[in-house]
Amino acid sequence: MDRIVVLGHKDHGKSTLIGQLLIQTNSVFESRIAEAKRASKRLGKKFEPAFLLDSFSEERAYGLTLDTTRAELKYKGAAYEFIDVPGHKELIQNMITGASYADSAILVVSAKAGEGFKDQTRRHVFIANMLGIDFFIVAVNKLDAVGYSEQAFNKIKGEVEAYLKAVGINNFVFVPVSAYTGENLVALSKNMKWYKGKPLLEILHGRVHKKGHGHERQAVVLLHGTVEGERERFIAGRVISGKLSSKQQLLLLPENKKVTLLSLLVKGKKSRQAKKGENIAAKLSVDVKEPKGKVLASTNADISVGKKLPAKILTVSGLSSKLQINFNGVLLGCKIGKLGRKIDILTGKPYKHGKIFAAECELELSKPIVYSSFAKYPELGRFILLSDGNFSGFGIVNNRN
Amino acid sequence: MIEQDLDELEERSIYIMREAKEKFGNIAALWSMGKDSTTMLAIARKAFLGKVPFPVIHIDNGIDFPESYKFRDDLVKKWKLNLIVAKSEIKPEISGFSCCGANKTEALKKVMAKYKFKALIVSIRRDEHAIRAKERYMSVRDRNFKWNYRNQPPELWDDYSSKIEEGGHVRVHPLLDWNEIDIWRYIKKEHIPVNPLYFSRNGYRYRSLGCTHCTVPIKSDAKTVDDIINELKTTNIEERSGREQDKEKAYIMQRLRALGYM
Asked: What φ, ψ does residue A334 adopt, rounded to 5°?
């Protein structure tokens, strides 16, 4: 299933857009719509499609999304999961949580006077792009509030396009919509005859996606623990690339030791093979102590072991001197070595001051870990940063130059 | 109702349960003898090589259906389950919100305190209820069982690194991504035993099971798992329409869950 995160500034219509998509594709029970209608009425509002997503009483009373949620719809035989996230900057970690599960994004930007392309929208784009999302449908929203003006659409389009290009995103499509009235979402609206493109859902549907990373042949297993069998202990892990066969020769990292896969269990049963996405239990020719974060890989897989990583980091709350990294569940102390120039995530341009930034750097860890570049094996090239024990950002591993 | 890739769902559930066991060690699962928590146990048997390596808790207020008790005892024997029965006292004058809140949640608190479980596997699904859709895969509860839904910790990718305070625990939700129809398709594929109350008798069946006081059956002629799957493909009625709890005042589920209900 395709996962699409809906991004943008608060009150620009993210939840409303998903709510309308659910209604127009018949993907929501009548009773849920009735409940949302009752709730709207109790608050003295007209029907709010956003209430199909915003289920907390506080979210409805204050008209905002507090936390991320998901909803599915089916369109022309394909299933899509939409991830709603909060637009407020105080809730940025909930936005990051939602976006980390997505393959592509819809960016909602209101064309209404006084709203427009805001800082928080820029920040969302930057974060989503760093999380690996490289396709954006830009839904220029609230066209009903500006007389369905092509000029208003073009003004926003020009601003957003300039920013996307400045931060290195070239894969995007623009569509003028009115989420509240449900126009140009599933069908073209006669109020915007000047628009020659497709409705939003059709753009999403027509997209060719799920590109491989080009390194899919080498078997790579990320270990995360052990499971007890009747008489013996197995190591547990998940295949993140390629295919694995029992009796195969593999490299155990970080030990850099050649091992043989003596037995392999998939879904609790003995198996000769395991493929990408499957959880395995395995017996090796050697004993593995503390498997968490260790890796089994084909001898020719391009994976590194080390304490110094070339990385790109992004912080949402600044970095303290007591910095830690969570790398695949392993918590380690870390220092920022050579820090490259800071990028202002609002403008995409270099800047000197401020706590909220992205930067290239060299990370120095307290212990060696197994890693690859994010581009090669995403699971081995991403991490979470903690300042004084609290979430303060995330990062990805760059290719070594 | 949207049908998802069962292999993908199963693998995610296996991963989450293994992570929970690895991370927290002393864990337990809630088992209502319903289709979801029984499916969860079937997946646990795959994750942990043929056995369920943690106790299963039945919160028993003494008014569950007779069929459920029999189903429970049969499966405990068949799957060699380590069953903990948490008796909750039922007071006839209390129902709905107060019943689920006061009785079930209180009984659960006692069990959690007695065995000092660090995590509790609960088989909620996002499509069941809009409030449950707001959950994380792993969700922290404080020592008073409170769900601080206004400030949930981030949960990026598949990393579940939430911290627990002393005396608190983590709710683990391995079935969060599953839809009702996926559960039934999986039951069919894996031949998982099902509580007989789900099948139609005299034109009625239970679609969602609570206790006898607060659950009513729906009109249905579905007598087999296949019938149920077909019924769900075209239904326009919500799963929990037979649950009184969900029909009381607005935001009942939010209030219940914030106080520690599942």
From this structure: -155, 150
Specify if B150 maps to a domain. Answer: yes
Transcribe B172-187 into DSSP letters: E-TTTT--HHHHHHHH
**A280 sits in which H/E element:** strand A279-284
Instruction: Give the CATH number for residue B59.
Output: 3.40.50.620
Distance CA B44, CA A92 (A): 34
* CA–CA min distance B63, chain A (Å): 29
What residue of B is the nearest CA neighbor of A384?
A: B156
Find which of B23, B24, B156 to mutate to test the A interface (most A CBs within 10 Å of its CB): B156
Same domain (yes/no): B173, B128: yes
Say what the pTM is. 0.89
Chain segment A67-112, per-residue pLDDT in tens: 788 889 989 988 999 988 877 777 788 888 888 889 899 999 999 9
Q: CB B254 to CB A56 under 8 A?
A: yes
ipTM of this complex: 0.87
My answer on whether B73 and B40 are in the same domain is yes
Mutate to test the interface with A, among B4, B159, B257 (most CBs of A within 10 A): B159
Give the closest of B46, B157, B238 to A382, CB-based.
B157
Are B242 and B254 contained in the same domain?
Answer: no
* Tens-place pLDDT, residues B102-161: 677 888 889 999 999 999 999 999 888 888 888 889 888 888 777 777 777 788 887 766
Please give the residue of chain B at the shortest CA–CA distance from A330. Answer: B161
In chain B, the number of structural domains is 2
With residue A43 as reference, give the H or E element that holds it. none
Least confident interval from A186-195, A340-349, B40-49: A340-349
CB of A173 within 8 A of CB of A203? yes
